[in-house]
């Protein structure tokens, strides 16, 4: 049985992973290898299908249904994804979330948990970004919750 604590821990792991990739980049470490490891820990590419629509993805490869596509989004440098500059390379120093789409913003249905709300990010220049997010986690064979759906976007701004 998935608990709200499990879901919150999985979301926090996503936030912490994003910070870790940027820190490795800033410190001259192998941030690409770290990002690949974090993607394996957080996303369900190894056992299942992942629907991933990243916040800043655009062009003809918006959806990232492969680990290679997710890695390109987070660290850039893949010529197959020329629009990706490396979202994690913004060097986010603080990342947190809320599940504010409903009173608790978490739905649990057996081995699936759904969250909706916002992710807040502050980079090393103290610039803050808020994104709308929907995460769906699945309990995998090893017992860990991993993302099988990740949809994020900048909030709508009527102009």
Count the E strands: 6
* Topology order in helix (H) and strand (E) letters: HHEHEEEEE
> How does the helix and strand content classify structurally?
alpha+beta
> What is the number of helical segments per DSSP (H or I, 4+ residues)?
3
- Work out the helicity level: 25-40%
Amino-to-carboxy terminus distance? 45 Å
Mean pLDDT: 95
Share in β-strands: 25-35%
Net shape: globular
The CATH class assignment is Alpha Beta
Second rung of CATH, namely the architecture: Roll
Please mark out the parts with pLDDT under 50 across 5 or more consecutive residues, or reply none. Answer: none
**What's the CATH topology label?**
Nuclear Transport Factor 2, Chain: A
Number of domains: 1
Q: Report the C-alpha radius of gyration, rounded.
A: 15 Å
Quaternary structure: single chain
Largest sheet: 6 strands, mixed
InterPro entries: MICAH-like (IPR016878)
Protein name: Phosphoribosyl-AMP cyclohydrolase
Organism: Thorsellia anophelis DSM 18579
Explain what the structure shows:
This protein has a single domain, classed as Nuclear Transport Factor 2, Chain: A. Helix content is 28%, strand content 30%. It is built from three helices and six strands, in the order ααβαβββββ. It is globular, with a radius of gyration of 15 Å. The relative contact order is 0.20. The model has no long low-confidence stretch (mean pLDDT 95). InterPro entries: MICAH-like. It comes from Thorsellia anophelis DSM 18579.
């Amino acid at each position: 049985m998935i608990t709200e604590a499990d879901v919150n821990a999985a979301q926090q792991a996503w936030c912490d992973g994003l910070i870790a990739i940027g820190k490795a980049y800033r410190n001259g470490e192998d941030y690409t290898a770290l990002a690949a490891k974090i993607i394996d820990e957080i996303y369900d590419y190894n056992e299942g299908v992942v629907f991933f629509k990243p916040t800043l993805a655009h062009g003809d490869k918006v959806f990232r249904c492969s680990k290679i596509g997710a890695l390109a989004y987070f660290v850039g440098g893949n010529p197959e994804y020329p629009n990706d500059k490396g979202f994690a390379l913004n060097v986010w120093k603080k990342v947190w979330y809320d599940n504010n789409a409903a009173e608790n913003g978490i739905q649990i249905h057996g081995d699936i948990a759904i969250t909706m709300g916002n992710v807040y990010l502050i980079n090393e220049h103290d610039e803050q970004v808020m994104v709308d997010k929907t995460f769906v986690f699945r309990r995998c064979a090893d017992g860990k919750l991993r993302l099988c759906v990740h949809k994020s976007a900048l909030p709508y701004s009527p102009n």
